[in-house]
Amino acid sequence: MKRWAGLWRLKHALSKSDLTWFDSQASLDETQGLASQFYPYQIRFPAIEPSFSPGHLKREHFFLFVGNGLPHKNVKVLLQAIENTDIQLQCVGIRQSVADELCVIFPWAKQQVAFLQHVDDVALLKLYRQCAALLQPSTAEGYGYPPLEAFACGTPAIVSDITVLRETTGGFATFCAPHDWQAWQSALRNFQRDKQQVNHALAWAKQHQGKQGWAAHIQDIERLVKH
What we know:
Elements: H1 2-16, E1 20-22, H2 25-34, E2 41-43, E3 63-66, H3 76-81, E4 89-92, H4 96-105, H5 109-112, E5 113-116, H6 121-130, E6 133-136, H7 145-152, E7 157-160, H8 163-168, E8 174-176, H9 181-189, H10 195-210, H11 214-226
Parallel strand pairs: 1-2, 3-4, 3-6, 4-5, 6-7, 7-8
Helix pairs in contact: 7-10
């Protein structure tokens, strides 16, 4: 019932809007499947804050996950992937109660995973700059900030092979099927951070920080207000 009520509200809002923004073409395509008629739309990639930038910290041998513990974030596939390995993972944004449940299901997580609580912007930036790579195994996203924030720090990303992440990362990430834990395990075990990956990451981040972003959103709002 809640799902149907939410869909009705979405369709109603779309039909009344003067302009609709979408974070990605993938989000637009999904929405068009729900509501075939709505007013003019624009696709605007959100900006990546300038504070996300390369640093001079020494890289460490851990992988980073940034996101909540909701099912679509799919963190369980990572916990499956690290079983019987020496891979270390740090997770930012998962509530302690969810982390405790995950440690019961995947006992090895107690030794191999650090569930970090209350990470501020400064600490998050440090993690992006120190980790070997950013991991995003999501089964669904509207945009996906973490891989691009990692890119801006010169950090490669390994992400789910889903349409939206293909789009927003520009194909410069390493891709794994969302539910194939063996593919994730292979990607993590064989990961080699090289100069080409770093250059790709920085180039894609520069594109997001330049031509697209918050300035374009603000200009659109100003045009709406003036008219």
